[in-house]
Design a protein that fits this description.
Layout lengths: L4 H6 L19 H6 L14 H19 L2 H10 L1 H13 L13 H4 L1 H13 L17 E6 L3 E2 H7 L4 H7 L7 E2 L5 E6 H13 L15
Antiparallel strand pairs: 1-4, 2-3
Helix pairs in contact: 3-4, 4-5, 8-9
Length: 219
């Protein structure tokens, strides 16, 4: 069911950016992203990296569940902030009130957050009941991860993978510039068949793969 949470957060749009600057399918705030090791710099914003952000979101949700001992409260913490949920619990405890999700005083967005997830879960579980037809998704891996430390233009990388630039960027939306920076090892997501083609071509290619270079101005 947690796999459906990005539908509520971003409609699975990795380039989604909220007015509060939350980004990616899991809508990490800048500070929370940095806390969980999601790099945000000139070259990239790892909050938009589907694999990295999903990994950190599950770590964060697991921590919230351990803190609150309840998945509804954990989800409220994910949406509203763990500190706010903690304060609301403390207020209820001081007043002798119940400490469950439904009993807490919270903003309307958070109040509706868990019901939205429940609604999507019910639709996915039984779409015919709601007059909907959902496309079948094969229960097989779609993409593979190729790791490289070579600098390359995203356009050139797409060509090596025999993908359109649009499809390449849809799988790798974390890059802020039209170049994949080198030095640090980068993970590139590609459809499985294209990943094999990309890896083979990359190994055989010795020429530069980047058409421009960033320079830091001297004082």
């Amino acid at each position: 069911e947690i796999a459906l949470l990005p539908m509520i957060e971003s409609a699975y749009n990795p380039t989604a950016l909220s007015v509060a600057r939350a980004a990616g399918i899991w809508q990490f705030m800048p500070s929370t992203g940095r806390h969980y090791g999601l790099a945000q710099n000139f070259w990239m914003d790892s909050r938009r990296d589907v694999l990295a952000a999903t990994d950190k979101a599950l770590v964060y949700l697991t921590k919230l569940h351990e803190d609150f001992g309840d998945w509804q409260l954990a989800l409220a913490g994910y949406n509203w902030g763990e500190g706010n949920v903690g304060k609301a619990l403390a207020r209820n405890k001081a007043k002798g009130l119940p400490l469950d999700y439904e009993s807490l005083d919270m903003p309307a967005e958070t109040r509706n957050y868990v019901p939205k997830l429940q609604a999507v879960k019910n639709i996915v579980r039984d779409p015919e009941k709601f007059g909907l037809a959902l496309a079948d998704i094969p229960d097989t891996p779609f993409f593979a991860v190729v790791k490289t430390d070579r600098k390359m233009d995203t356009k050139r990388a797409a060509e090596l993978a025999e993908l359109s630039l649009e499809d390449f960027l849809a799988l790798n939306p974390q890059h802020n510039r039209p170049v994949i920076a080198g030095a640090d090892e980068q993970s590139i997501l590609l459809p499985i068949d294209n990943a094999e083609i990309f890896a083979a071509k990359l190994e055989l290619t010795q020429q530069p793969l980047v058409s421009w270079q960033a320079y830091r101005m001297k004082a």
